[in-house]
Specification:
Elements lengths: L6 E6 L4 H11 L5 E8 L3 H11 L3 E4 L2 H13 L5 E4 H10 L5 E4 L7 H9 L3 E4 L3 H17 L2 E4 L2 H9 L13 E8 L9 H5 L3 H5 L8 H9 L1 H14 L6 E5 L5 E7 L4 E5 L5 H9 L13 H4 L13 H12 L3 H17 L7 H12 L8 H21 L6 H4 L1
Parallel strand pairs: 1-2, 1-5, 2-3, 3-4, 5-6, 6-7, 8-9
Antiparallel strand pairs: 8-10, 10-11
Helix pairs in contact: 1-12, 2-3, 4-5, 5-6, 6-11, 6-15, 10-15, 11-14, 14-16, 15-16, 15-17, 16-17
The structure holds nicotinamide-adenine-dinucleotide (NAD) and magnesium ion.
The site of nicotinamide-adenine-dinucleotide has 26 residues, from helix 1 and helix 10.
């Protein structure tokens, strides 16, 4: 049965891979959800089309010129949607009193302020933007606690872990009887490649993920295994465990999305076809289950499930992230920023695939490490690492990347 009042939903990053999947699930349940606001960086045509279908109260474009163009296009199409611009517009639609749930699906550090604004406003926060926790985990989790926000992980592994954890007195996931978390990784497109072949990999090869269709940045992170390093940090903040309580397991079929091992020897897993609409529907509907349009898992077709240990020799980003988590302070924020610069450089053809870990590691050796006591401190660490990583890329004799260094 549908609830009496519909949930008003803001989708931050609605034109991206997670955003589009979120709107697909929402459209299956018009009796439950109303789209309150949609946001994008600069894809005017995509956001216009979404506005014409979902008729949100607000649309936000972070780039001013794009916002003006969207305003003109929506006005001429007779749309009643109000267009806002810039990061202030993102914060506004994330924290608006009329909003019940916020899907945080902006990619990268750019998503942190609005995601934090949603947490501070006590919203149901559907967290796809893992970078918010990676950069500012302590600040973000205390905002969630202080404001009474409901944090539901959308990253498929963390959503699986959430589903497999025991429930505590407050009907929230706890750790009673838990021995360890088993965080699965597909291994990415280069899992079986030798080091020389990996070093010569092109952006299109890195983005051709064997099981998941995702945005280009996270696809490269999956190929380097930095995504698993970011997810290790994400798991520690979300579930209140140390990195030593998490084992990373490469599972090439991406059918098991992660597992929880208990003290009595039981291991609980969540399985399903690799389709982000499953965790998205779980977040939108929790504690109820909603139809998501996902093809049911056919175990006879799957036939086998394989597991192996990650190879940190061929994929040094996982080791770098693990060391950055152990270093604490702002080191993971710097690691995330250097990774964003290096990945943008790789996607632009400015550096090779194996220069991604090199740029990150050299950046981390140069930046300062401080306690992340405020958003301003985290943002300063992020900027410093972007600047250092940009300088290191230029020192390698490559073209500067003004756009992605900002
Ligand atoms: P994407 O690149 O497909 O989409 C990103 C969205 O963010 C777009 O709507 C874009 O307009 C917006 N955006 C980009 N830069 C922005 C900026 N500077 N300011 C404001 N908006 C900006 O990304 P995605 O693959 O959908 O990933 C979104 C987030 O979800 C990432 O944090 C990623 O790690 C996480 N995630 C994605 C998947 C997946 O399957 N795609 C799975 C797990 C987690
Ligand atoms: Mg994931």
């Amino acid at each position: 049965m549908a609830p009496a009042t519909k949930q008003q939903v803001t989708v931050l990053g609605s034109t991206g891979s997670i955003g589009v999947n979120t709107l697909d699930v929402i459209a299956r349940h018009p009796d439950r959800f109303t789209v309150y606001a949609l946001t994008a960086q600069r894809s005017v045509a995509a956001l216009r089309d979404q506005c014409l279908v979902h008729a949100p109260r607000y649309a936000v474009m972070t780039e001013e010129a794009a916002a003006e163009e969207l305003q003109r296009e929506l006005a001429s199409a007779g749309s009643a949607t109000t267009v806002l611009a810039g990061s202030a517009g993102l914060d506004q639609v994330a924290a608006d009193p009329a909003v019940d749930a916020v899907m945080a699906a902006i990619v990268g550090a750019a998503g942190l302020p609005a995601t934090l604004a949603a947490a501070n406003a006590g919203k149901r926060v559907l967290l796809a933007n893992k970078e918010a926790l990676v950069m500012a985990g302590a600040l973000f989790m205390s905002a969630v606690r202080d404001a009474g926000a409901l944090l539901l992980p959308i990253d498929s592994e963390h959503n699986a872990i959430f589903q497999c954890l025991p429930v505590d007195d407050g009907a929230r996931p706890g750790l009673a009887g838990v021995d360890r978390i088993l965080l699965t990784a597909s291994g990415g497109p280069f899992r079986t490649w030798d080091a020389a072949r990996i070093a010569a990999a092109t952006p299109d090869q890195a983005c051709a993920h064997p099981n998941w269709s995702m945005g280009r940045k996270i696809s490269v992170d999956s190929a380097t295994l930095m995504n698993k390093g970011l997810e290790l940090a994400e798991a520690c903040w979300l579930f209140g465990v140390g990195p030593g309580q998490v084992t990373i397991v490469v599972h090439p079929q991406s059918v098991i999305h992660s597992l929880v091992q208990y003290l009595d020897g039981s291991v609980l897993a969540q399985l399903g076809n690799p389709d982000m609409r499953t965790p998205i529907a779980y977040g939108l509907g929790w504690p109820e289950r909603l139809a998501a349009g996902v093809t049911p898992l056919d175990l006879f077709e799957t036939a086998r499930l394989d597991f192996e240990a990650p190879d940190e020799g061929r994929f040094p980003c996982l080791r770098i992230a693990r060391e950055a988590i152990a270093a604490g302070g702002t080191t993971m924020a710097a690691c995330n920023a250097a990774n964003e610069i290096a990945v943008a450089g790789f996607l632009d053809g400015a550096i090779g695939f194996m220069e991604i870990p090199a740029v990150i590691e050299e950046t981390l050796a140069r930046v300062s490490r401080v306690e992340p006591e405020s958003l301003a401190v985290v943002e300063a660490a992020d900027s410093e690492a972007r600047q250092v990583a940009g300088e290191l890329m230029r020192a390698r004799g490559r073209a500067p990347l003004a756009q992605s260094e900002r």
